[in-house]
Amino acid sequence: MPLLDPTRPDPFWRDVSLDSVREGVVLCVRFLCLVSLMMNREIAMELFERDRHLWFLELMYCDVPSEYQTQEINRLTLAYFVVSSFTILRALDRIDREQVASWVLSFQARPRNDEDLENGKFYGFYGSRSSQFSAENRKELDHHGGHLASTYCALAILKMIGYNLQSIERESILVSMRNLQQPDGSFMPIHTGAENDLRFVFCAAAICFMLNDWSGMDREKAKKFILNCQSYDGGFGLVPGSESHGVLSVHLCLSGTGGATYCAVAALYLMGFIEDDLLFRNASPSLLNVELLLEWCLQRLNADGGFQGRPNKDSDTCYAFWIGGTLKILGGLDFFDKGALREFLFTCQTPYGGFSKSPRQLPDLYHSYYGFCAFSLLEEPGLNPLCVELGMADVAALGI
């Protein structure tokens, strides 16, 4: 059974069994060519292999491997990784923007009438086709509704490909999003049965920022929740009183990695509560214990040059963004050895294109994307700059 509704365009996850034999042969030939290339020349692992990365992304754009089927519920997020990667690598021409926009818009949840906006459900974007239940079939399925992280990814994709977000059905998103904010200022990602923590405060702030409308949240309540999450060591836990984290999932909302500390700092920046280069603004008082936060971030450096997510953990490609991005917002990118970080990242660059979590592993979309982000932070030639606080390519720099 195909995973998708065949009546709708879906460039990111075609059922391989439905592909033509010719397409399969083309993919096999390209793979054999890559193997031949690897066997006949030494791979320059001290160079950013842009062409290999683009080859990897083009494969992911056409046919996501079967190993990703366990993440089917997060297909909008996987698409976000692909589109934003193309954008960072200055290769947005490799995708059909109109087709992508149509595909993304097909995931928006819409209320049947104005009364539905008061039923507590969130009318943002679904994470995948399988989470869209038709009205006649869903019966008593209470989880029918949008998801904050998927909505963030959807709007980010549309923004990056130049779609006018003013034409989005924004009122239903913003009005229903207020229902997700809890009395302590935190957010749940869906209307019932989910955790509430800093990840979704960030998503809500990013959504309001991209839509240029803050009616979807109470910023003062959100600020109070964020500040209550700063720990004694300067980092941020996902909720007040929890361990400081550079880990846990922001985008996939699975068991991957993310950045509670990044989410806290980026959300405060998006909401207008902190400014650029906070470390050098001694004249004005800060909401945060900035010195302790800086110390916590710099303590995440390992001897191999990479960043860890929390104490006593190994270095990981994605932390180069989660911690590095936090330092960028604070104005502390010059406080660590960028050359050492670059060398660590090269050990995670794979001969197949993309990046792995750690050296000598296979690449995946999540770590590949944050590897590209990290090299953008390190100002790798030929890459577009980042809008660090939104976690994506700087569309203003692209002239979109």
Q: Structural class, from helix and strand content?
A: mainly alpha
Estimate the global geometry from the Cα principal axes: globular
Distance between the termini: 39 Å
Average residue pLDDT? 83
**Radius of gyration computed on alpha carbons:** 21 Å
Helix and strand pattern: HHHHHHHHHHHHHHEEH
Helix content percent band: 40-55%
Uncertain runs are 1-8, 13-29, 35-44, 247-258
Tell me the β content.
under 5%
Largest beta-sheet details = 2 strands, antiparallel
Q: How do the strands of the widest beta sheet line up side by side? A: 1-2
Number of strands: 2
Per DSSP, the total helix count is: 15
Protein architecture, described:
- It holds the Pfam family Prenyltrans.
- Belongs to the protein prenyltransferase subunit beta family.
- This is Prenyltransferase alpha-alpha toroid domain-containing protein.
- Keywords: Metal-binding, Prenyltransferase, Repeat, Transferase, Zinc.
- The structure is a single chain.
- By secondary structure, the protein is mainly α.
- It is 41% helix and 1% strand.
- The protein has a two-stranded antiparallel sheet.
- β1 and β2 form a beta hairpin.
- It is globular and about 60 Å long.
- 47% of the residues are buried.
Summarize the topology.
Layout: H1 21-40, H2 50-62, H3 75-88, H4 97-105, H5 135-138, H6 148-160, H7 170-177, H8 198-211, H9 219-228, H10 260-270, H11 290-298, H12 319-330, H13 338-348, H14 365-377, E1 386-387, E2 392-393, H15 395-398
